[in-house]
Amino acid sequence: MKYLVLIVALAAACSLTLAKTVKLPAKWKICKKNDPKLQECFKQAANDAVVSLADGGEQSLGVFPVDPLRMTKLSIDQGSGPVSIDLEFRNMDLKGIKHAVFREASFDPKTYDMTATVDIKQPLYLDGDYTIRGRVLVLPINGDGKCSLKLDEPSLKVTQRGVLVKRGAETYLNVTDFGFVLDTKKLHLHFENLFNGNKELGNTMNTFLNQNSDEVLKELKPAISDGFGAVFKEISNRVFSKLPLDKIFPEK
C-alpha cells in the first residue's frame, strides 16, 4: 500500500504563533517526578489535557479546539490484494475525541517517552469528501462525493518520543515520533454519488462495503492512523515548544 498525507492547514486545530514560553494552563495537572504515583498522575494529566484541547483548545499554546479535527487530504493507492483502490479523502473531520478516556498510560521521567491506550466512550465519526476508483473484493467501484465513516467502540494506541532541546536556561521537548493506531469494533461506511449517482448500484455497493467492513478497515486503518498521527504530532509540538519540561514535570 502507498498513501500520502497532505496537511495543508490545521484549520480546526492550530494557529500560526511563534514558539515562546507560556504558563501551564490553570486546568492542567502538574506531575512531580518524585511522586510515587507518577504514572497515575501522568494518566490523569494526559486525559485532562486532551479533553481540554478537544473542548476549548488553548489559545496561549496556539491550539484551537481539536474536536472536530480536520485533515485536508489523505490519498490511498492500494494496487493489489482483495481491496485494490485509488482512494482520496478531502477535508475529513474527525469528531468525538472529547470523549477520550485513558485506560493505560506510562511516562519515562528520563527520556520523556510516553505511551497510552485510549478508549473513546462514544462513536467516532469521519465526514468529508472522497474520490474512489478500483475494485473491492470481486466488485468494481467508482465515485466522487460526500462520505461518512462511523467507528463503534473505538480505541487508540499512542506512542510519543522526542529529543530534549535547550533554549536559554530552559529545556523543551521536540516530538520526533508520534505513533497513532486507530482501531474499532465495527466500521460503518457510506459513500454518496457512487457510479455517477446510480442509486441502485450505490446502495448495493454501500451494503456490500458494510458487510465486508473488516477487509476495508484493514486497508484504510494504516493511512488514517498515520494521517491523524501527523496532525497530533504537530499539536503536541505546539504544546511542548512553549512549555518548559520542568513546568510540567518538576523534579519535586
Automatic annotation (TrEMBL):
Q: Which GO terms describe its biological process?
A: circadian rhythm
Q: Which GO terms describe its cellular component?
A: extracellular space
Q: Which UniProt keywords apply?
A: Biological rhythms, Signal
**Is the keyword Cytoplasm assigned to this protein?**
no
Among Pfam families, the record links this protein to: JHBP
Tell me the leader sequence span.
1-19
Which PANTHER family does this chain map to?
PROTEIN TAKEOUT-LIKE PROTEIN (PTHR11008), RE70318P (PTHR11008:SF41)
Homology family: Belongs to the TO family.
The protein's name in its UniProt record: Protein takeout
What is the source species? Answer: Megalurothrips usitatus
